[in-house]
Amino acid sequence: MTQFRIGAKSLKKLDGVHPDLVSVVAKAINLTTVDFAVLEGLRTLARQKELYSVGASKTLNSRHLTGHAVDLGVLIKGKIAWDWPLYEIVADAMKQAALELKVPIVWGGDWTTFKDGPHFELARRRYP
What we know:
Blueprint: H1 8-13, H2 19-28, E1 35-40, H3 45-53, E2 69-76, E3 79-81, H4 84-101, E4 105-107, E5 119-122
Helix pairs in contact: 2-4
């Protein structure tokens, strides 16, 4: 299996993210068969409002505001790819990493209404 690593830009975007979620991301990059980057971690309310206003988010109460969520983007030849099956591969790696680390996560791709393939967050039941 190809070994990927978290790049410097992604590491910077993990600043302020809960350490348990950072650990899951760090483990998942070693489990995945596709490379990924951290697109967003901790967000300001201004950024959340901006995303909400253009329909990229359905809430102003995002887990990103508290550092309990990350958005990951699949990298193909150094560019972000949005093909849905690629996000299922990343989700499998994230879920495996979370299981091994005993950190419950929720994948936005499993939501029934607004499916959000890049989004991963700590489960509210353990991380209110």
